[in-house]
Amino acid sequence: MMIAYLIFSVVLAGAVALVRSRAAVRAVGVVFYMAQSVTAAWVAAHGDAADSWFFTFDRLGTLLFVLMALVSALAFLAGTRYLDNETDRQFKLYNIFMILLCAAISGVYFADNVAVTWIFMEATTLCAAGLVYHRRTPQSLEATWKYLFVCSTGIAVAYLGILLLSTAATGGDMTYATLAQAVGGGNPLYMKLAFLFILVGYSCKMEVFPLYTVGIDANQSVPTPASALLSTALVNAGFVAVYRVYKLFFGTEAFVWTGNVLILAGVVSVLVGALFMRRSNHYKRFLAYSTVENMGIVLIGLGIGGIGVFAALLHLTAHSLIKSGLFLQLARIGKTYGTYRINRIGGYMHADAPGAVTMIGLTVLVLAFPPSALFMSETMILGETIADGKWWLAAIVALAVCVVIYTFLSRVLQLCYRPSGPPPEGRPAPGMGWIPLVLLLAAVALGVWQGGDFVEFLNGIVR
Q1: Taking the CA of residue 8 as centre, how many other CA atoms within 13 Å lie in the half-sphere pointing to its CB?
Q2: DSSP string, 227-280
Q3: Which of 39, 42, 161, 318 might form a disulfide with 198, Cβ 3.0–4.6 angstroms?
Q4: What's the pLDDT tens digit per position in 171-190?
Q5: In Å, what is the CA distance from 200 to each residue of 104, 166, 212, 376, 435?
Q6: For residue 242, what are the contacts with CB-CB under 8 A and spacing of at least 6?
Q7: What's the CA angle centered on 2, arms 150 and 16, to 5 degrees?
Q8: Which residues of the chain are under the pLDDT cut of 70?
Q9: Cβ 205 vs Cβ 152: under 8 Å
Q10: Residue 422 pLDDT
Q11: Which are the contacts of 343, defined by CB distance < 8 A and separation ≥ 6?
């Protein structure tokens, strides 16, 4: 099934390259995203199922694949409106790289082999780089080379970790199930270094300390609808790669050490995200730093253990819905004003009242105010942190969250209510307003109601 999906994705990406009109490109895109949604529904209906060629449809991959199917389809619809001034060549290349990026991310989600995960992670670098260079400007060229260099370096560092893990593998079998049985008998020093290298290497994808900076520049350069995919689906791919390796160490003497490493990386990420959000004068960079802060909280939840692991998965799910909604709403703001500079725009409530209300609603959710599911996940993580006796950690995270709340609210209220002249475009882009609203309603529904089946589904991932 997975091989058929990957081949189908490549074929449709080639079809986009061959067609001549924008209408044909949109038609091929509709076919791909509908097929991806059908695949997601099939995978969700069949539950845990092994697939051939190093792939397994497990619960974690299924959850994130379903989220990606929703976000990527909405990003495609927003992109057809957002890219109305692009050349036909730019429009085609954008959709080609979006399709290929979805395929590469799917490979990461379902890979049952640590080496296969590494291969598809490198493929995401090449696909995302094509989106970063979309504008063909000196700034986008610089961001592209930086993205390629830093991500390739990170992937190489992760490969060193994989080589160290292979010293414990039996018969060269690098599947996660086999490694889980073999890691306990490996050299403890090698195993600890392997996890450290993998975390550092994949941090460029998960957008956490230390290689988070490349994701900030990439999100500023790519078309804004693509940022909705990079800041959720691609970030989730980095999480999957780290989480699967972290699980290998459960029950070994290195497990406590790996948890402490995750907590350290998470705390630094939260502090970096909170501090640099205040210094940013660009709304896309601003939201990208918010991603760094939220993924830092996810790492802390993993590292602290207990109910924190469940909370981390809930946080990841809610963040995917909310952050993609914010970026898609920001795309509408960018079309309205023609810029993303924070100090140059204001009065959005007068220019586009429905869009401003949606932006405020998404802001309330991303700041973990009820009815946001992030409120529950952050409360559970802080509660588990205090129960574990790490008061200092809870105090640092709470202080950083307060800084984020103040910064985020001040920027959004400035956007909506600060007096400003008429926007350059004069009106919001038509046909884009309902797209982020769908994600807003989905995020509210997740916060208000988590059915027993969904809770059991997350618990199944933890088990």
Answers
A1: 16
A2: HHHIIIIIHHHHHHHHHHHHHHTTTSTTHHHHHHHHHHHHHHHHHHHHHHHHH-
A3: 161
A4: 778 899 899 998 888 889 99
A5: 21, 18, 10, 28, 35
A6: 198, 199, 202, 206
A7: 70
A8: 48-52, 420-431
A9: no
A10: 58
A11: 281
> Greatest CA separation found in the chain?
68
Helix-strand-coil percent breakdown of the chain, rounded to 5?
80, 0, 20
Helices (H), 83-137: 88-110, 114-132
- Lookup: tokens for 450: 């988590």
Q: Which residues contact 181 (CB under 8 A, 6 or more apart)?
A: none
pLDDT in the model for residue 90: 95
Angle at 204 between CA 272 and CA 362, to 5 degrees: 60
User: Which segments of 167-234 does DSSP mark as H helices, in order?
Assistant: 176-182, 188-206, 213-221, 224-229
Dig out the tokens for 371 from the structure: 């009815």
- pLDDT at res. 427: 59
CA distances from 317 to 62, 64, 154 (A): 12, 8, 25
Burial string for 409-448 (b: 16+ CB within 10 Å, else e) reads eebbebbbeeebeebeeeebbeebbebbbebbebbbebbe
pLDDT digits (tens, 9 = 90+) for 317-357: 999 999 999 999 999 999 888 899 998 899 999 888 999 99
pLDDT of residue 421: 61
Say what the pTM is.
0.95
Q: Which two tokens stand for residue 120?
A: 């598809």
SS3 48: coil
Nearest to 386 by CA among 294, 308, 309, 310: 308
